[in-house]
Amino acid sequence: MRLHALIVALALAVTSAPAFAQALPYHADPSAREILPVTAAVPAIRFLTTADFPPFNFRDADGEMIGFNVDLAKAICQEVNVACTIQAWPWEQAANALSDNQGDALIAGLAMSDANGELFDFSATYMALPGRFVTRLADVGAFEVDALAAKPVAVRRGSAHEAFMQRYLPSVSLEEFDTELAGLAALKAGEVDVFFGDALRASFWLNENLDCCGFAGDAYFRPALFGEGLSIAVPAGHDAIRHAIDWALVRLKDNGVLDELYLRWFPVGFY
After folding, report:
1. Cα–Cα distance between 83 and 85 in angstroms, integer?
2. Same domain for 201 and 241?
3. Residues 154, 246: one domain?
4. Nearest-angstrom CA–CA distance, 108 and 67
5. Which of 12, 44, 177, 208 is the most buried if burial means most Cβ atoms within 10 Å?
6. CA-to-CA distance for 204 and 254, rounded, in angstroms?
7. Is the alpha carbon torsion for 270, 157, 11, 141 positive or negative?
8. Domain range spanning residue 179?
């Protein structure tokens, strides 16, 4: 299953917004830099992706594949110095195409679930997906988690972020909404003072509401609740490809390319 159903209209807007992002945290294992890829075993990397997951992978007005994942795949191939192809598949066929040797790696947000783990190995995480609080701009600087007991917090009903609040901040009163957009709209309208939810999706909304609201407090990483983040799937046992990708991810973080791609595609940073 896909990790997150991104809001397409908001996601597409990030490509023309001003840059407010900060660098990506270090997610990859630094020891991977010691696993030098054997280029003879990796003559090329055939990346598979989808065309409906902006701003990660989608088609532009001319039909060309663009997005963060597309640029990252190209950067990995350049770093490893191998030939690279990127082919788009429908989401419901992409994993099967990887299993059927139609490609070497799938960069499309495939969940690191137990079921997928039986078929695929995964690279290091290249982007984690934290939870964040959002408040109106006037309240960002004075935001304190300890003061939340006096303010209902908007959450999406039944979400992992609601479960986080119930588990770690049980004294806080929650205001449930059917969607995250509805909760954020209530924040903007002054109906609630605080929102908590997926930081990535919230960043798309903030990109359109920079005069209203902003992230407040810290980013919360809880893989058991929010997912392991984004990584690249390869067929199980294809260690040469996986090692080459992991090595490249460390190199791209160290030389600043990974941060540059993040800043380009996510101008409102969510860390």
Report:
1. 7
2. no
3. no
4. 11
5. 177
6. 27
7. negative
8. 131-225
Q: What is the pTM of this model?
A: 0.85
What are 111's two structure tokens?
Answer: 């969940």
- Tokens 């930081």 correspond to 199
Q: Is 239 found in the same domain as 187?
A: no
Sheet of 131-136, strand order: 174-177, 153-156, 194-198, 131-136, 213-220
d(CA 217, CA 141): 9
Find the angle CA(18)-CA(26)-CA(31) to the nearest 5 degrees.
150
Same domain, 232 and 220: no
**Cα–Cα dist 49/66, whole Å:** 11
Residue whose C-alpha is closest to residue 82's, from 237, 230, 247: 247
Token digits of residue 258: 């990974």
